[in-house]
């Protein structure tokens, strides 16, 4: 058997027949099978081993020839398949392997590792332990029970098996202590963190979505013109996953059922920088969660400055009162006030007339005291805006639009809606049309520096207010912080990262409904994924930011990322990304391609090198069959059996017999052929019409009609039977009625 010429499916079949591990790259499969064959030949002896190898080789060669013949027939159909289908097949094969590896337990892996011992002394010992002089996988030689020497042979085999097992255990320990290259034939021992990490789940989500067709761009949500003087929630600066009410005096998270750990926040359209101002926030209700969900419903309310993130209390100049009875400032949490929840009303006060800016709160009318004191010099001329951040709950706000407040407020304070317009500070207006908005699609391999470029670009262009759609940004909004929040274990962190990657896919789908500027901070190495994402942003200025550093810098950044984030990209995922990485070009859905590090002339050879190296290590993609290929394959088989058209003529029947039979059929049922005017079909129709008029006329009788219908139906049944018999005899298949 020539192992090098076998395909991946044939390698897996041969390994499965021997009970060995059939997962991994093609190089590993071929090496594992070759070692098993060497062990079998050593165990079987020169004569039997040669005969057995010849039989197995002949069977494999016959299967290879048969598969090759079928592939030759399918070549003309597979030439029309697009590149994105090939990418999908690679992704599906890799995802199938990853799923299978995740589901396999430790017991199964140990058993497969013992079965897949390498060639040499260990392989010979395993074959001899299974049975000396046996067939495949150490099969016992045919020997009658109770025959001469049976007990002695069994005792010798058992003693030898114990010695070989001890030797195998020593070899296995030595090989596990060595490098991966020395552990040939053993199932690769995966570290617990190898399948974890942001890049792994980004790749899985990208591969899953790239197999789907590009959905049509979503329609923009209709919205009435806002009153510029009204104090309402600003949907331009709020989280994309925050759903504001129609009047924009409240809201709730958009994905509370799918992602119950996701915080959603929003600020008001106006802020203040002087006077004594207040507003109210009520926890309207706690949203229902799925059964078994351990997440809680929380609201955080307070004040923040413009351009701060929506995570209230976790940035500088961002001050919040949390429902757990905590106050938060710049990521620092301290105990304050009382816990609050559903139906509770929190009043927020800002006093700019004292020596320092004082922020205080009250619960259901009960004063809780001053929570924050801010130096006016540090605050400067920044205005404070009402801010809410909720998780699994809906909030209702009173900026002063209500006739009566929820609870009485001190007389010296006024609601922000009652503050004169000239004393308020309005946040910048959102763009009027999508032509004024732009979307930047980051493209690059993991660790190349996309996130760093994104952060720097946001700092350099604060007026554009970019919304970052990336796994890091969503992970920041999914973590619940506090003074006593425990660190997540590896499994919980892994689940959180997986949820974040799914959430990003949802956000990319709903993002084109709004008029904002976006940065899609993911790898986006697949052309199908780039097209699927950018086609939704029709009307936007669509640009691709391509980051390809030189090889040395990229390796250093990967090492730095591994040290800081503890996130190591699996080798299989990295190879798959390299194999499918191609430089995008300007087209109907890409307005401009910008190279931020290496120029195109330098990046193209490097990307080509990555692709060639990866494709040598990856197994060949298995062609995915679809309905069209199956239908064409059946048609070709039918043509070979005498059915269908070949060269414009039917095969499998005699034209003369067919002509005679057709003439008889026409004469029997329709009259003389070609006489459509006076006889044949005309006579039959006239007779039927006359009978119909007679039976349905004045002299209609039920019994006469019944008898006529039976005769008429019997004639048609005879016709169908004759026609089916004719089709069976000459066409080879049953006629259609």
How many β-strand runs?
23
Write down the CATH class of the largest domain: Mainly Beta
**What kind of sheet is the major sheet?**
8 strands, mixed
Write out the CATH superfamily name of the largest domain: SPRY domain
Report what the structure shows.
The longest helix has 33 residues, at 46-78. 43% of the residues lie in helices and 16% in strands. The strands form five sheets. Strands 1, 2, 5, 10, 11, 12, 14 and 15 form an eight-stranded mixed β-sheet that branches. The chain has a six-stranded antiparallel β-sheet with strand order 3-13-6-7-8-9, with no helix packed on it. Strand 8 and strand 9 form a beta hairpin. It is an alpha+beta fold and 737 residues long. It has four domains: 1-130 and 163-173, no CATH class; 202-217 and 450-617, 3-Layer(aba) Sandwich (Rossmann fold), CATH 3.40.50; 242-426, Sandwich (Jelly Rolls), CATH 2.60.120.920; 656-730.
């Amino acid at each position: 058997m020539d192992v090098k010429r076998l395909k991946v499916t044939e390698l897996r079949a041969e390994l499965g027949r021997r009970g060995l591990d059939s997962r991994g790259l093609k190089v590993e499969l071929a090496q594992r099978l070759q070692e098993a064959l060497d062990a079998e030949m050593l165990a079987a002896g020169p004569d039997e081993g040669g005969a057995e190898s010849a039989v197995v080789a002949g069977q494999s060669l016959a299967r290879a020839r048969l598969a090759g013949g079928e592939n030759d027939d399918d070549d003309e159909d597979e030439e029309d398949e697009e590149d994105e289908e090939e990418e999908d097949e690679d992704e599906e094969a890799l995802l199938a392997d990853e799923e299978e590896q995740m589901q396999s337990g430790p017991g199964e892996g140990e058993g497969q590792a013992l079965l897949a011992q390498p060639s040499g002394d260990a392989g010979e010992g395993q074959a001899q332990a299974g049975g000396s002089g046996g067939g495949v996988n150490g099969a016992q030689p045919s020997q009658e029970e109770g025959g001469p020497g049976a007990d002695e042979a069994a005792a010798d085999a058992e003693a030898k098996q114990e010695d070989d097992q001890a030797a195998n255990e020593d070899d296995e320990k030595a090989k596990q202590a060595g490098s991966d290259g020395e552990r040939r034939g053993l199932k690769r021992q995966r570290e617990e963190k190898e399948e974890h990490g942001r890049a792994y789940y980004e790749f899985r989500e990208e591969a899953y979505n790239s197999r789907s067709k590009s959905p049509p761009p979503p329609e923009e949500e209709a919205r009435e013109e806002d009153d510029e003087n009204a104090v309402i929630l600003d949907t331009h600066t709020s989280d994309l996953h925050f759903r504001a009410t129609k009047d924009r005096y409240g809201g709730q998270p958009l994905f509370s059922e799918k992602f119950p750990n996701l915080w959603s926040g929003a600020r008001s359209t106006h802020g203040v920088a002087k006077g004594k101002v207040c507003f109210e926030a009520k926890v309207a209700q706690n949203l229902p969660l799925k059964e078994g969900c351990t997440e809680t419903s929380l609201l955080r309310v307070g004040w923040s400055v413009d351009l701060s993130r929506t995570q209230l209390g976790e940035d500088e100049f961002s001050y919040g009162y949390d429902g757990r009875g905590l106050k938060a400032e710049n990521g620092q949490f301290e105990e304050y006030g009382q816990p609050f929840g559903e139906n509770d009303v929190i009043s927020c006060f800002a006093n700019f007339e004292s020596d320092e800016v004082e922020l205080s709160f009250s619960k259901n009318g009960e004063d809780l005291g001053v929570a924050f004191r801010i130096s006016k010099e540090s605050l400067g001329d920044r205005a404070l805006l009402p801010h809410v951040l909720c998780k699994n709950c809906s909030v209702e706000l009173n900026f002063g639009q209500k006739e009566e407040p929820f609870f009485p407020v001190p007389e010296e304070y006024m609601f922000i809606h009652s503050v004169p317009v000239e004393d308020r500070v309005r946040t910048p207006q959102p763009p009027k049309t999508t032509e004024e908005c732009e979307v930047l699609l980051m493209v690059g391999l993991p660790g190349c520096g996309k996130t760093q470029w994104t952060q720097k670009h946001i700092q350099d262009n604060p007026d554009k207010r970019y919304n970052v759609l990336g796994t890091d940004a969503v992970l920041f909004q999914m973590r619940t912080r506090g003074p006593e929040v425990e660190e997540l274990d590896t499994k919980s962190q892994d689940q959180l990262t997986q949820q974040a990657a799914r959430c990003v896919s949802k956000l990319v789908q709903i993002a084109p409904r709004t008029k904002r500027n976006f940065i899609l901070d993911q790898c986006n190495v697949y052309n199908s994924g780039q097209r699927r994402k950018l086609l939704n942003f029709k009307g936007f200025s669509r640009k691709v930011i391509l980051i390809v550093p030189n090889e040395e810098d990229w390796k250093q950044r990967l090492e730095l990322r591994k040290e800081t984030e503890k996130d190591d990209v699996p080798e299989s995922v990295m190879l798959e990304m390299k194999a499918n990485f191609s430089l995008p070009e300007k087209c109907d859905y890409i307005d401009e391609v910008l190279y931020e590090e290496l120029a195109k002339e330098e990046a193209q050879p490097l990307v080509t090198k990555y692709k060639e190296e990866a494709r040598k290590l990856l197994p060949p993609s298995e062609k995915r069959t679809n309905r069209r290929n199956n239908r064409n394959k059946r048609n070709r088989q039918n043509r070979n059996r005498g059915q269908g058209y070949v060269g414009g003529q039917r095969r499998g029947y005699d034209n003369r017999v067919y002509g005679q039979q057709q003439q008889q059929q026409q004469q029997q049922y329709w009259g003389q052929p070609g006489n459509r005017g006076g006889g044949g079909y005309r006579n039959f129709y006239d007779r039927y019409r006359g009978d119909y008029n007679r039976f349905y006329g004045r002299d209609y009788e039920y019994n006469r009609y019944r008898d006529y219908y039976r005769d008429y139906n019997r004639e048609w049944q005879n016709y169908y039977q004759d026609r089916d018999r004719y089709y069976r005899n000459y066409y080879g298949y049953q006629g259609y009625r």
